[in-house]
Structure formats: structure tokens, C-alpha cells
Amino acid sequence: MSRGIVVALATVLGGCRTAEPPMTTFAPKSDFAEWTYSLYLQVIGWDSFILVLVGLLLVLALFRYSTRALGKGETPPASRERVELEVAWTVGPALVLIAIAIPTIRTTFRAAPAVAPAEALHVDVTAHQWWWEVRYPDLTVVTANEIHLPLGRPVRLELRSADVIHSFWVPQLGGKRDVVPGHPNAITLVPHVVGMYPGQCAEFCGLSHANMRFRVFVESPDDFQAWIAHQVMPVLTPVTSEDLVTAGARLYATSPCVTCHAINGVSSGRLGPNLTHFATRTTFAGGTLANTPENLGAWLRDPESVKPGAQMPRLGLPPAQVSELVAYLGSLR
After folding, report:
1. What SS3 state is found at 25?
2. How many angstroms from the chain centroid is the CA of residue 215?
3. Torsion-angle region of residue 200: left (phi > 0), alpha (psi -120 to 50) or beta?
4. DSSP code string of 31-62
5. Phi, then psi, of 298 in degrees rounded to 5
6. Are residues 296 and 262 in the same domain?
7. One domain, residues 177 and 281
8. Among 176, 240, 243, 278, which residue's CB has the most CB atoms within a 10 Å radius?
9. Is 18 buried (19+), middle (13-18) or exposed (0-12) by CB count in 10 A?
10. Cis-peptide into 169, omega within 30 deg
11. CA dist., res. 138 & res. 38, Å (int)
12. Do 247 and 221 share a structural domain?
């Protein structure tokens, strides 16, 4: 009982926060999230009704049918079969379950229609240990760990796994979807509010599961088109006399990096994230590190120390070469 009171108080106090927590499902920012939120409220309503009903019946049983409520010398009435009660506590819960099941099934199918809307933006998301590959097949754009979506346009997210079971979850934009190898899944939604929404793998998938994050950016249609236009352009490496950038480009082209990573016009690796326009991203390493020279340098020196279980091997680069690669990757705009 005391635990229930503590949980209730924590819920009430948590609801008094002025700042909106980023990983909340109670601040819907898409049609799918709004359907889920509405379903939450319906289920909470039924649960509250059942809680009150059971509480009232308990009080009635304690004070109306307790032996202490009887007069001195009285004995409780003999129990007998009550068909109406049997029917009530069988039919009642069944009706409650039906009332919960109908909107649940409706929400499930609304968020994953068999055919996407004709005007939908198609985005292919592939889960890897431990990062997310993002492709826009109709726009020839490939990126990693960051998904850009236009405001007010239907979006069809096609979800796949390249290795083990993962789960795609952006709390403010919609419910979880399991990503199972060999079994593509999908989410269809319409984002309603501009902003950045963090996401997370929600299915334990190995040592660095907690470090498998990503970001979804909902932008105005004009800003989204500008982002796409920039992504399809050749890599804009500044014309510079800096030896670091030139040396870094040469080092990248002759290093093992090219076997895993792709940069349009430079390399075509597929095992790791595509690095084209890497410098325009806000994070890297599965969305766990801010894209700064300091973090990138630490990652290149020893990925495992930054992200346990990282698939990228330690290259054993001397400090000078780390600085060159940091300068080159930082120029990929």
C-alpha cells in the first residue's frame, strides 16, 4: 500500500515539471503519438473505474457483511449460489477488455497501413549494432543516426535489422516497433510540431544497447527541401591551404577506413555509417557523442573506451594522424 502511495505521489510531482522531458509519451507531436496518448487515457480511465469499484466493494464487504457488523448472538447468513453475481463478474471484465481491445487494435492498424499514402515520404531505417542507417530511396540520400522529416507530410518508415532484434522508438512521435532480422516492419505517421526528438533502441541488443540512439528532426517543408538539396550535392571540402585537411583526405583514402565507410566519390564501404556530409550532423557513434573535434579525436584514438562494444576497431593512429582525420572529417560539409 505504501509503495502505491509513493508511486502515485511521484506521478503527481512528475506532472508538475515545467520542462518537458525529452523521452515522454505524454507530449504527442504526431498523429500516431496522439492516437497512442488517447489510448493511454482510455486505459487509465477504465483502470481507475475498476480501482474505485473494487475499493467500494471491499468497503461494503468489510462494513456490511463483516461478523462484527452483526448484532450480538447473530450468525452470518448461509452462503448460496448467486447466478447474477457470477454473470456480473464474468461479463463485466469481458466488456472492459473489449472496450480496451477495440481502440488498441484500431490504433495498431492505423499506424501501419498495408499501403502508404500516395504522397508519403519513404524512409528506410536499418538497425545495426549499435547505430542506425537512414536512406531516402526516392531522393538518393544516405545518412546515419539522424532522420529529417517534413512538417505535416505523411511519412512511411520502413524498418529492418542487419543483425539482431532491435526496437525503433521515438516517444514523442509514436510507439515502439520491433525490428526483427528478415521481417521488415513499418510505421506511418504525420509529424505535427517542428523540433528535435530523441529516439532509442528499446530492445536489448548487446553490450552497447544503451548507446544505440538517434535523433529525428521535424522541419518546415522549406527547411527539409534545403537539407535534401544539400545532401545530394557533392561533398563540399573547403578550398584551403591547411595541410591537415589535405593530409587527412590522403590518409583516409589509403587507410582501412575505406573498407567500412562510404563517402560519395571517395569510398564505397557499407559496413559502417556513410560519412558523406559527416560535418553537418549533430552527433555520431550511434547518436551518443556530440559532433565536436574533441569527441571525434577521442573516438578515433580508441572507440572501445568511448562506446563499449563498438564494432570499429582501434586503428592505433599516432596523434598527428588523428588530428589530420579530425580535420578532414570536419570539412565534409
Report:
1. coil
2. 8
3. beta
4. HHHHHHHHHHHHHHHHHHHHHHHHHHHHHHHH
5. -65, -40
6. yes
7. no
8. 278
9. exposed
10. no
11. 33
12. no
Task: Please name the residue that has the C-alpha cell 512528475.
Answer: 14
User: What are the CA-CA distances from residue 312 to residues 123, 130, 133, 299, 332 (Å)?
Assistant: 26, 10, 15, 9, 20
What are residue 302's phi and psi, to 5 degrees? -160, 85
Three-state DSSP at 61 gives helix
Distance, in Å, from the CA atom of 155 to the CA atom of 125, rounded to the nearest integer, reads: 12
The one-digit pLDDT tens for each residue of the chain (333 residues) are 444 443 444 455 455 554 667 788 889 999 999 999 999 999 999 999 999 999 998 898 888 766 665 566 666 666 667 788 888 888 988 998 998 999 899 888 888 888 888 899 999 999 999 999 999 999 999 999 999 999 999 999 999 999 999 999 999 998 889 999 999 999 999 999 999 999 999 999 999 999 999 999 999 999 999 999 999 998 865 555 568 888 899 899 998 899 999 999 898 888 999 999 999 999 999 999 999 999 999 999 999 999 998 889 898 899 999 999 999 999 998
The angle formed by the CA atoms of residues 177, 179 and 182, to the nearest 5 degrees, is: 140
Question: What is the DSSP-derived secondary structure letter of residue 315?
Answer: -
Label the pairing between strands 131-136 and 121-128.
antiparallel
With the CA atoms of 70, 76, 82 and 84 taken in that order, what torsion angle do they form, in degrees rounded to the nearest 10? 0
Q: Is 15 exposed, middle or buried (0-12, 13-18, 19+ CB in 10 A)?
A: exposed
Q: Whose grid coordinates read 516497433?
A: 177
Same domain, 213 and 107: yes
pTM, two decimal places? 0.82
Contact at 8 Å (CB) between 300 and 317? yes
**Domains: count for the chain:** 2
